[in-house]
Amino acid sequence: MPDDRKLPNDDGLPTEEVEIEFLDDEVEGEVIEEEPTGVEPVSKETQEDEAASLKAELDQVRDIYLRKLAEFDNFRKRVDREREDYRQAGVEAMVRDLLPVLDNFERALEHAEDDSGALLQGVEMISRQLWDTLERRGVKEINPVGEEFDPELHEAVQRVEDDKLQPGSVAWVMLKGYAMGDRLIRPAMVGVAVEPGSDSDGGGGGP
What we know:
Layout: E1 2-3, E2 20-21, H1 44-110, H2 118-136, E3 139-142, E4 154-161, E5 170-175, E6 177-180, E7 183-186, E8 188-194
Parallel strand pairs: 4-8
Antiparallel strand pairs: 1-2, 3-6, 5-8, 6-7
């Protein structure tokens, strides 16, 4: 309602009339309704279905991830094996190339046993250094005199008739064999003992 009171100024004199009208904040009897949002409520069954669907998708993604992880691990192991095989093959090729040099050193020493000069000592020292280097690489000598013939380690180049030797044993070694770890670098070339009177042709495939 209007209020017609006059307010004094700083001099104590009344000022112009100011009409102040107060309005009620609430409208009596009027109900304000909320505007619809357009979003329908979701039922519990729908929520459960969506949760189950999301869980199934998550399980599928997890399964794919684990399979890819296993495939990558297998790939890494295969690459490591191939790299090691290549490295080993390179070392074996180097050793195989050095074996004839070692053979020649041994032949030279066999024919110079009566020489005690500095040359013989030098050849012995070089031969020992070469063999020590190969031995550090895991190279092992195959010198099977008196052992049973093994076609996986030995190559028979001759049959030897000798009643003092066990048939099927190695009578002599023409060329030593060498292995590196569990891999054969070169088979030993050997003569194999047979019973006297048996076929003594010099076949190279076995005793």
